[in-house]
Amino acid sequence: MRLILIGFGAVGRGFAEILRDKAKDLRAKHDFAASIIGVVTATRGSLYCADGLDIPALLSAAKAGSFASYSASAGLRRGLSGSDMIKLGAADALLELSPTNLKTAQPALETCYRALDAGLHLALANKGPVALHYADLQAQAAARGVQMRCEATVMAGTPTMQLAQEALAGCQITGARGILNGTTNYILTQMESGASYQAALEKAQALGYAEADPSGDVDGWDAAGKLLILANALFGSRLTMSDLQVSGISGISADDIHLAREQNQHYKLVAQASPSGGTVKAQRLPATDPLASVAGTTNAITLETDLLGAVTLIGAGAGSRETGAALLADLLAIHRGACNQAGASA
Amino acid sequence: MRLILIGFGAVGRGFAEILRDKAKDLRAKHDFAASIIGVVTATRGSLYCADGLDIPALLSAAKAGSFASYSASAGLRRGLSGSDMIKLGAADALLELSPTNLKTAQPALETCYRALDAGLHLALANKGPVALHYADLQAQAAARGVQMRCEATVMAGTPTMQLAQEALAGCQITGARGILNGTTNYILTQMESGASYQAALEKAQALGYAEADPSGDVDGWDAAGKLLILANALFGSRLTMSDLQVSGISGISADDIHLAREQNQHYKLVAQASPSGGTVKAQRLPATDPLASVAGTTNAITLETDLLGAVTLIGAGAGSRETGAALLADLLAIHRGACNQAGASA
User: Fold this and answer.
1) d(CA B21, nearest CA chain A) in Å
2) Nearest CA among A278, A259, A305, A41 for reference residue A167
3) I need a labelling partner for A267 at 20 to 30 A (CA). Which of A284, A289, A321, B122 fits?
4) DSSP states of A175-214
């Protein structure tokens, strides 16, 4: 499977490392092999080679800060755009890993449509296009006979989408509620241990969990974006941000947290969706709720189903390798589908 | 997909009800349609019709206690064995739902081999064959180009096997630990609420969770059978009961439970496996362990993975409809034609 990567930040590098480390294993276990033929970045330049780029050299060049240090070789082309690379027609799939824009989803949205139009499978870690245009992208993928997958956009590699869409395919999912933002969960967990909101936030920033401007996390917008993706993927809805009621954790005081603990309850920023809408807000959960004991940067989701009742999945919600694993999972699912078609026509 | 069911107890009836209730939905959503062409039972008789049995009539006859009350129609045959039905060559898949025998796996094991030899896909709710002969059955399925699936044998329809084998296909699973027996978990939860072991056991028996002879549950053997299935499926091991150290909960006193609670810990019967062996034993878990808050008859499993760390799945562990849902999930996976057999085969 020949891949174009748009973006080569922490997630792209995490994915490339997995491909490098697991190549032999993936071939043996799943008859799967992938090569990165193109990488486009905003600041490091772009590289393209239809025969496949050298992954260790690519990682070294990225670490050095510029693809200029990647050695020239036969067939290597520099400076192409994603659109140029798609037009060259050698790729099987495009990975959209550029920064999330929850307002317009651009410029990634345009790239996604170009990839699908050209018959490429699409896997995203960028939340924007699927948060804002899930149904349209899915319809376009179906029309072109390719897959559009976005496991990496929700709970990193913890396989939320595959759980809901494949493993629970026989069930109707009627609701979803989860802890979808690790930064706020880390802050709330620190506050349970006695830290003030400000001290917990500063610690989260020092550890790289929260950004200098933490509002995307602490005001609930990151969780809201993920909730939109889930709602539109699981319910076939066409919800937008205006269908969600979003608030964050900045109004929660140390006193609130301690009062809750005295009653054996935990404050969590809960993102909750039904087919008709959703909310993101801080809630007190009893200790018996599977979401209540989810601590630190861990994420979790409870899906309500018709046949099984509640099914809860708990796991990593962030991390470059963990998110890279989600992209690999999407590609393996695409590979299984391709094998499936090959088998059907045989 | 034309199905033969061996056994038509609570699980078989739960599955048939789902097929009846979801037929339209499954066709629309997944282009999937299934008919039950044969049912073999130990005490109600057997029915076969290559054009498909009438599911409501089948359920009524089962409720009445004998298939004699199922109306005769063109093509209906009574009294055939499973082996007879397989030989007739009309079926696509066989569902082995007869009672579990963890000593010899018979007579189900023989039926499973006959089905695979005849090129039928196989889905099991009966734990015996996969607990004792997972690797051989999987190899035989692969040799015949069919699938052997057993989602229903572990945690009912909570999709443990699909999570491990498909959604986490890109990860190496290095360990598994779970609460795999709902009866003992119910008893331990009741004891935390103040009941004695004896009172909790009697309540579990009154509710139908525990049998008159509860030893299969309370001594850990049910959990051990499920652990063998998991170990052999996830690690490609060939473990047998002699590789497991198995103990139960009958040695746990109300005092033990309360002492643990005072230290914010919970007693759970934990089944734990690595590629080289496993244990089933009562353990004290800190409240921060995702398994600790799993209460009542709910089941849970934590898989340790190389790329994601711990991934935990929590959900129903029993119930006729919940287990029937697992059989449907297996058939949908077969329908998708996932060509990459279990990770164990590599």
Assistant:
1) 11
2) A305
3) A321
4) EEEEE--HHHHHHHHHHHTT--HHHHHHHHHHTTSS-SST
Mode of pairing for the β-strands spanning A46-48 and A35-40: antiparallel
Chain B CB contacts of A315 under 8 Å are 308-312
Residue B207: Cβ within 10 Å count: 11
| Yes or no, beta carbons of A159 and B163 under 8 Å apart | yes
Contacts of A156 in chain B (CB under 8 A): 308
CA distance B107 to B128: 10
**Encoded amino acid at B199, one letter:** A
Q: Could you report the per-residue pLDDT of A276-294, keeping only the tens digit for each? A: 899 999 999 998 899 999 9
3-state secondary structure chain B: CEEEEECCCHHHHHHHHHHHHHHHHHHHHHCCCCEEEEEECCCCCEEECCCCCCHHHHHHHHHHCCHHHCCCCCCCEECCCHHHHHHHCCCCEEEECCCCCCCCCCCHHHHHHHHHHCCCEEEECCHHHHHHHHHHHHHHHHHHCCCEECHHHCCCCCCHHHHHHHHCCCCCEEEEEEECCHHHHHHHHHHHCCCCHHHHHHHHHHCCCCCCCCHHHHCCHHHHHHHHHHHHHHHCCCCCHHHEEECCCCCCCHHHHHHHHHCCEEEEEEEEEECCEEEEEEEEEECCCCCCCCCCCCEEEEEEECCCEEEEEEECCCCHHHHHHHHHHHHHHHHHCCCCCCHHHC
Would you mind telling me the total number of residues written for chain B in this entry? Answer: 346
Chain-chain contact of A339 with B339 (C-beta, under 8 angstroms): yes
CA distance B29 to B127: 30
- Say yes or no: ipTM exceeds 0.90: yes
Residue of B147, B303, B339, B341 to mutate for A, most A C-beta atoms under 10 A: B339
**Please, which residues have CB within 8 angstroms of residue B259's CB and are 6 or more apart in sequence?**
none
Instruction: Provide the annotated active-site residues of A.
Output: 226
- Chain A positions in Cβ-Cβ contact with residue B346 (cut-off 8 Å): 28-30
CB–CB contacts below 8 A, A to B: 160
Bridge partners for B343 per DSSP: none
Model pLDDT for residues B80-123, shown as the tens digit of each residue: 999 999 999 999 999 999 999 999 999 999 999 999 999 999 99
CA distance A259 to A252: 11
Taking 50 as the pLDDT cut, the residues of chain A under it are 342-346
* pTM reported for the whole predicted model: 0.95
Residues B155, B161, B167: CA angle, nearest 5 degrees? 130
CB A98 within 8 A of CB A53: no
